[in-house]
Amino acid sequence: MASVTLQQMSKQFGVVRAVNALDIAIADGEFLTLLGPSGCGKSTALACIAGLERPSAGAIVFGEKDVTELAPHERNIALVFQDFALYPHMSVRENISFGLRQQRLDGAVISKQVAAAADMLDLGALLDRRPSELSGGQRQRVAVGRAVVRNPAVLLMDEPLSNLDAGLRIKTRTEIKRLQRELGTTTVFVTHDQEEAMVLSDRVAVMRTGELQQVGPPMEVYRRPANLFVAGFIGSPAMNFFEVELGRRDGRVACTFGGQTVELPAEAASSLDGLNNGRAVLGVRPTDLLAGTSAPLRLHGEVFLVEPIGPVCYVDVDVDGHAVKGVCEPDHAPTPGDRIALSFAPGRAHLFEPATGRRL
Amino acid sequence: MADTALGKFGSGTAEAAVPARRERRDWFPFFLSLPALLIVFLVIGLPLVYSLVLSLHRINVLTQRWIYVGLQNYLQILPQADFLWALGRTATFAVVTVVAGLVLGMAMALVLNMSFPGRGILRSVVLIPWAMAPVTVGVLWGWIFDGTYGAMNGLLLDTGMIGKPIHWLADGTTAFYLVALVYVWNQAPLTALLILAGLQSLPENLHKAGRIDGAGAIRRFFSITLPWLRPMLLLILILTTINSIMAFDLFWTMTKGGPGSATTVFSWMGYSTAFLYLRFAEGAAILYVLTVLCLLLAWLYLTLFFPTVERQRAAAARVDLTPPDPLDVGPGVAARLGSPIGAVRTRLMSLPPFTRRSVLAPRMRRVLGRFGLAAAVAFIFVWSVAPFLWLVLMSLERSADLVRTPPTVIPGPLTFENYRFVLFPPGVSGGQSSVEATRVPFGVLNSFIVAVCVTAINLVLGSIAGYAYSRATRSRLMRGTLWALMLTRMTPSLALILPFFLVFKWLGLIDTRTGLVIAYCSLILPLAIWMMKGYFDGLPPNLEKAALVDGCTRLQAIRKIVLPVARPGLVAAGIFCFLVSWNEFIFALILTGTPSAQTIPVIISGFLAQLRFYDYGPMFAASVLAVIPPVVIALAFQGYLVRGMLSGSIKG
After folding, report:
1. Where are the domains of chain A?
2. Which entry of A201, A204, B141, B451 is 20 to 30 Å from B163 by CA?
3. Which residues of A touch B553 (CB under 8 A)?
4. Which CATH class is domain B28-313+372-650?
5. How high is the mean pLDDT of chain B?
6. How many CB atoms lie within 10 A of CB B150?
7. Is the complex ipTM higher than 0.90?
8. Among residues 567-606 of chain B, which lie with CB inside 8 Å of chain A?
9. A308 and B CB contact within 8 Å
10. Beta-carbon count within 10 A of A108 CB
């Protein structure tokens, strides 16, 4: 068991800077997810932690020990790959025990350890099969088994669920969470799926073009996104954004958007003074924009599309020429052409600085 | 956790305060490829330099004195009419055989890619002509077209189509095109194999989409299949062009450059100048011109082919690093979605009803198509198998029956006498025995030993270097050396023989199996590296990474994971090494002289040189013995070959 600290870690490939000065401290036993769109550097960062890539600058510390220059097998880590990377010429048992055999452990110890891992992952019946004879979900379990059998100090997972189909992914997600709780192993998980990140993690680190955007507990990242990118990336469907003009009115902040104005509480305006010509970006999640309720803030527009998804209905509303998405009760869904009001609570509004994207 | 908003948006952050770690150069891939590189340099690079030096001197064969003459050898040969004629013949031969081989190979591959009963067998059978050594092919076809006893005359006489035998190879033009035909017969299967591999990688849905768009089979071939095969065809084009320019074995066995000089191509000219007239320096000059021609072609090939691959790679690797702008809502969407249903459709024209262009009813076309396929299958089968079976048949006839006049294709009584004769030679003293027949068992043994050694050495070196080249694509050093390796693959082997001959003589390696093994590495090692690189390119790199995480060193990861997983690729490359080595003729002809090292193609050529009628039966028996191992291997591992080709070639 160990904590993991990344200190100003950078990785450069030629002129491409894949990871730029990453600073994250991961506590012992914590489940941290690196989240971001493809090409954001999250897998490169993981490869650096694993020792498969050598950072161009900065350091990686496990516990008290600087491991930056150590080879993968000297770090006591395990890695689950996206494509599982099971050795095709070995049986499941040989796959799982390969790392143990590399360390020349005693045969009896190995079989005891493999049995424990197989039991944990329900692989007992599959031990003598080849990877080619397994289903996708079974392969995934073998890959996890191969990782946990060595009881690593740090468990690394590189999009381990993305090769599974939707139903299995949700089931396996739960399994991974349970397993990690039971083992208490420090885990770094890489994914581009924000739902996975939200469900699994103790903390989420959002990355973009090699830069860390925000790190925090899932709900905090969701509730208080640090910038426009995080706000737009986290949450589905994506947040609505409006370019608004800010003004003061009776100690409150007035956001003018097209011909409509909503007034936010004064707390939102703490840093308003430094803002040039009073422009900002207002963000509201579709799930916070409710049709047919009496929340204090309202936007008016004409419905042009209704998308029922079961528990709720999304309504797409033309607000002064901008498409805005909100939700409504399926039983009281409007029809296209209706003029409706979408209302939201003041606490659910996010204001960002247009030039830097920073949260106000 | 308090470290929430780090506020690193955009590029405005200060540069990292920590000092950068010094970039460590990763020499590991280079060390892996070093042994192979060294050997290639020793067996190709040095001989080429030696040959160049040689071509700038005049050598007295008796006194062994070298006199520097500068470019005089070149100036002497270049304006000669003979030289220019040979150049023209080489070009004609290359164009004819490449075009014919490509058309025939494409046709065979298209047929073999369809589904019909017995497809698996036919796929194996087409490989027979290619698996046969060119020397055996020359012996077989030379005999078929023999002016006095040949099967072609026999067939035409038997059926009454001609009154007296035709001397096929006595006419210059006929002889030239007959050699070309036989060359195509021998080489087309390789083209077919490569194209078949390309066809199998063609996504099926492309053709389905084409059919829905109303494209017929011919239209789909030109609009879908051919563009898909383009990189593969370019590769085939260049490889076969260079092979044709270097063609030698068939000329040796069938025409010896004659009649007159009608079939004196460049390679024969170089060979005869150097080794028949012993004018080493002039021969070296001729062969060096050939080398330069081949390297020019190779350069053309590499610049034509490599950039496209690089560009494709770059395009595929280019990841869009700019995430979608959250503010970009697409202002048109609202307006678009608000428009009435079907509004856009009214702006599209509706297509006129489909008119059938073919005059034939669909049912008729299907029947005709099936007949066509059956005819094509039958043709390919006969084309590939009949000459081989004829060889087997001749080996079972008595020598006296082979030289009947007038010739006939009706066989005489069959006997295993010829096989007994070559496998258990009764000794030189025994009446009608011949020296050559007693050498056959040694020849088979030598061929086998040499081929096994060559295969083992090249598989080991080639797979390790191939792995290094496959994984170290970022290193400029590795890319450069790979380029150089591919260039050496295009060196005509004929140009290397002269330096090998002279250096081996000096080293005492003439007429040894060791010498042959060394020489064959020059032919095979670049090919082995290239094939294995292609195979490793198709293996997920995560396998070795998993092994590294599981506690392997990099060498252990190769030994325990990569090589076992790459077994199919190793088998395919091994087959190629074995076949090339087993069938090779000209190196063995010049570098060996006695049964202690002569390989079976050389022994067979020896029969031909003696031209004694009672040796014809044993000669064909020896020929059959020479083709059995490669044919059996090709038939047994046909599936591996197609897969090996696919991974080895199409990915560039």
Report:
1. 4-224, 240-352
2. B141
3. 71, 73
4. mainly alpha
5. 80
6. 22
7. no
8. 567
9. no
10. 8
